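[Automated response] Your request has been received and processed.

Submitted sequence:
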Amino acid sequence: MCFFLVSRSNPAKTLAKQQPISSVFAWPVMTGLALQLMVHLTVLFSGWKLANEHRSKDFKRDLEGDFEPNLTNSVVFLLMAAMHASSFLANYEGHPFMQPLRANKALLYSLILFVTTILTAALEVVPELNSSLSLVLAPTDEFRQRIVMLVVADIVLSVALSTGIGLLAVRWRGQAAERRAKERGLGLGSRDAEDADNKASSGKRSSKSSGSSKVSKVLVEG
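Generated structure:
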C-alpha cells in the first residue's frame, strides 16, 4: 500500500537551484543507507537478545512444524514492522525536488496509522490486537518498556540521521550551484542578490533626496 502511495508523489512546483541526485551510489544515498542499516541491525540484535533471555531452557526449534507464537518472533515482528515504517519516513524524497510528505495526504495518514498500530501493539494497550496478530504479551513491564524504547529508537534515529544527511547534501549542492553560476556569469547568489537590491534601493533614495534638495535650492534662490 505504501509503495503505491509513494508513486503518487508529485514534483515540487518551484524549480530548485541545485540538481537532484542522479545516482543511487552518490555519497548522501550510500551514507544514509549505511547509517540506517547500522541502526536497524543494532536494534534488531538488541531485541532478539532480550527476548532470548526469557526463552525457556528446554526450547527446541522445529522448522518443519506449524507456526507457534513465542516471545522471540513477536519481538522480531514488532521491530521489523518499525523498520519498514522508518524506511518510508527516512527515505521519502521531499523538498526541494518533490512535494513534502504532508502534501501526500494518503501516504502521510497511512504511515501515521501504521506507526500508531505498531506502538499500540508494543505497548499492549489493546490485548485483542496482539492476539489477532499472534503476538505474545511481554512477561514483565520492564521488558515491555524496553521493547517500546527500541521501536521508538529505530524510527527516530533512522529518520533523524537520514534527514540530517539529506539536508547537508542539499545545502552543499546549493552552494556548489551558486559558485558555478557566478563563475559562468549566469546569475548572482542569494546573498549577492540581496546586497545588490539593497544598494539599488539605497541609490534610489539618495538620488531622490539629492533631487529634492536641488529643487528646494532653486526655489529659495528664486
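Summary generated for your ticket: Residues 2-184 form one domain. The helical segments are 2-6, 27-52, 71-91, 105-123, 127-132, 141-184, 190-221.
If you did not submit this request, please reply to this message.
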